[in-house]
Specification:
With 535 residues, the chain is an alpha/beta fold. 31% of the residues lie in helices and 17% in strands. It holds the Pfam family Tannase.
Length: 535
């Protein structure tokens, strides 16, 4: 049986069972919907994609509306096996828009509930496993690409384009008309998918949301390999508690002096916090539970200094962002996450250990063979912008998996011939937010979430910008002051479009957005990667 076939067969059995129950009790309108859905059914071909199943999923008690659920396989190359899921709400519930949803990490499966939030909002929805089976299986991760260059190209860009082409064809046939707007949103790998679409396939989407993108892929993963190696050095291991020692020193020195409020539990602008790992080096007689040893400090200094070519000294990838230590801990040393992110055997022969990866010659081979397929680093968005395309980018400043400096630099490089970048792109940096969400901040974006207020929901903002020309300049973040208490008051804080940043006015309630104003972001001098590592 082909890869992923068991998953598809089980889904097909469930879909057929639901279809049988629906047919037995269907109203005329429901029967018409079922007929329209099943007309898209098994074996129908759309270009290089073949529908595996098409059946109506009844409305559920948790508010998920009735919809036509379609599973398909796309094969842009003979070895391709790209699983695509499309969900089409009933015609009267459809808002006239198509929303593509990105995946995460190495993908290899369709994320549970990936389409549910958008369906509740009335979108026709589509997502894909990115053709990277068996990446989602235990202990596989990014090693799905070992010896499989075509699978990497599918994962890198072809799968997202294939799902979009199929979804548009299905929308047109099911509703009898094309979508009025097509949007895409994703974070991490999904953010890279978004950038890749705008760069390679600018006609696919009218507007995109790009979250914490992993678009500088080969060099980001070179950093993962470097952090794993640093943490494995004798005496350099760090526990989560020891990482907190350095973070606590950073908060003590910089909170309230970086534009945030004095009582913040996160850094508003870690890009200007000048705390160094050596500031927490153990002094003679000091309690070792309150400081770090010399080997640990030296390893952290290397990490915050960035990943370098050992022969030339060139910067390959950015150093860590101060305040992101909670997530950095997952990458430090020989951790399960670090092993999952390993791409060294995309180029290393099987007999060579990952630790033998040469950050000069082996990296050159990694870039030569795979950068064109998996790196979304072309800043020229002229074709996308010329057709009225819009981009909203967001990135957490407490992100320990993908440093925000990468997104800032690429955003500043983005351009379009004859157009000011501000005409079509916005970047929002999010204090206190980790990778794609979480952390101590008050912000997170995903179509999986319920629709929020118009001034805080990026998907709403994207639609208003695309359809009405109303560009977002400020986004209001909201969260419960004490999430453990259902009746806790709501705190709010503004996010200002880059290059501005929200700064506390020094008076008023620090938990309310009205006490902040947008001012230019202060940023300490940051070393940029060598040009050959920024493409």
């Amino acid at each position: 049986m082909k890869p992923g076939a068991w998953n598809i067969v089980s889904r097909l059995a469930l879909a057929l069972g639901a279809g049988f129950l629906l047919a037995a009790t269907a109203s005329p309108a429901a029967a018409q919907q079922a007929n329209a859905c099943e007309a898209l059914g098994a074996g129908t071909k759309f270009g290089d994609a073949t529908v595996v199943s098409a059946s109506v999923t009844p409305a559920s008690a948790d508010g998920l509306p009735s919809h036509c659920r379609i599973l398909a396989i796309a094969k842009p190359k003979p070895s391709s096996h790209i699983v695509i899921e499309v969900a089409l709400p009933q015609a009267e519930a459809w808002n006239g828009r198509l929303l593509g949803v990105g995946n995460g990490g190495s993908a290899g499966s369709i994320q549970p509930n990936a389409l549910a939030g958008g369906l509740r909002r009335g979108f026709a929805m589509v997502t894909t496993d990115m053709g990277s089976y068996p990446a989602a299986m235990p202990n596989v991760g990014f090693e799905f690409g070992n010896g499989r260059p075509e699978a990497l190209a599918d994962w890198g860009h072809r799968s997202t384009h294939a799902m979009t082409v199929l979804a548009k064809a299905l929308v047109a046939q099911y509703y009898g008309r094309p979508q009025e707007r097509a949007y895409f949103e994703g974070c991490s790998t999904g953010g890279s998918q978004a950038w890749m679409e705008a760069q390679r396939y600018p006609d696919d989407y009218d507007a995109i949301i790009v979250g914490a993108p992993a678009n500088n892929r080969t060099h980001l993963h070179t950093r993962f390999a470097a952090l794993r190696k640093l943490g494995m050095q004798p005496g350099a291991g760090l526990t989560a508690t020891q990482f907190k020692i350095f973070r606590a020193a950073a908060l003590k020195a910089c909170v309230g002096a970086d534009g945030g409020a004095p009582g913040d539990t996160f850094l508003t602008n870690p890009l200007q916090c000048g705390v160094k790992p050596r500031d927490v080096l153990c002094k003679p007689g000091q309690d070792s539970s309150t400081c770090l040893q010399d080997a640990q400090v030296k390893a952290l200094e290397a990490a915050y200094g960035g990943t370098r070519n050992p022969r030339t000294g060139e910067l390959i990838y950015y150093g860590e962002v101060i305040g992101s230590e909670a997530e950095l801990a997952y990458l430090w040393g020989d951790t399960p996450v670090a092993r999952n992110f390993n791409v060294t055997h995309w180029v290393l022969p099987a007999h060579r250990a990952s630790e033998s990866f040469d950050f000069d010659r082996d990296l050159d081979q990694l870039d030569k063979r795979f950068a064109a397929s998996v790196n979304a680093m072309n800043p020229d968005l002229s074709r996308f912008a010329a057709r009225g395309g819009k981009v909203i980018v967001y990135h957490g400043l407490q992100d320990g998996l993908i440093p925000a400096a990468d997104t800032i630099d690429f955003f500043q490089a983005v351009h379009a011939r004859g157009r000011d970048t501000h005409d079509f792109a916005r970047l929002f940096l999010v204090p206190g937010m980790g990778h794609c969400g979480g952390g101590m901040g008050v912000f997170g974006q995903s179509s999986i979430l319920a629709q929020g207020p118009a001034d805080s929901d990026l998907l709403v903002a994207l639609d208003r910008w695309s359809t009405q020309g109303l560009a977002p300049e400020v986004v209001i973040t909201r969260n419960a002051v004490d999430p453990a208490k259902p009746d806790a008051p709501i705190s709010s804080r503004p996010l200002c479009a880059f290059p501005l940043s929200a700064r506390y006015d020094g008076k008023g309630d620090a938990k309310q957005a009205s006490s902040y104003s947008c001012r230019p972001l202060s940023r300490a001098s940051v070393e940029h990667p060598a040009e050959r590592y920024f493409r």
